Input
Amino acid sequence: MSDPEAGQAAFEELLLELGNSVDVYPDWHPILTNPPQDGLRGASLQNLPAYKGVDHTVLFIKGFVTCPYDEAKADQLVNNVNAVTGLQAYRLDAVLYSDNAYPVVVQAVDVVLEGDGTIRSRDALAWCVQEMVKDAHNAEVAETWWNIRTNLLGCPHGSRSSIIVNQHTGSHIRKILEAMNNSGMYGPIKEWSLNMLSKKKRDTIAKTLIMTAIANYRDARRKFDFELCGEAIKAEVRDTWDDGTELRVVVVIGDSDLVVTGCYYPENGVLETSSPKGKRSIAEKFL
Output
């Protein structure tokens, strides 16, 4: 890049125009929902036809900037986006990524920001509800808040807010989701994420189950059952290198009512585990 200072100045102007930089949009963001979906579910910039040609992309609250290396592709991207209601695009004269790239700015024109820099609450709630209702007729299970927080808040996010929505908006999104789940419109509630528990508790659950499986492991049998805290548990232990240096362990309760995986290194007693997944009521038995 021949003039990094000019590129930095252009980037700062984009921050003023488009809001703060983000990693992931929520599923309901107009950048994802305004373009024709062509039957796609879980759309991303890369698989939406309107955004064909995006390359080296940075996301912001109101839109994104992308830097194709082909000028014809950049011009076509601008034309495709400007044909979509609620979106606008233009070529940026400044160099942002490379002297050989052609930056394009894409913005959702209906996104209005609150004083704190997040999307206006009434708009975010309306877009979110519209997107959630679309899934009702075809849903088989209801996803909990902990399972789909990133889909609803964007990323990075905290427990009830993100760079895209503030705590007031995030709290109402959660209440709306839980009301819809409790109504039964999506079907039975699927518990999977256990992020409502602290990391210390999740680590304790995982360690308890994996180490108990190791204690019940015998070299002659990879798969075996044991009982703990009144639960019948299925375990599978594999000697990765057939030399006893690394044991890979999978523990499952019921029909994936609780699942934990991990690796144990007997020589130094080191245990590495995944975060447990499943039903909270079962997981908490192992604290």
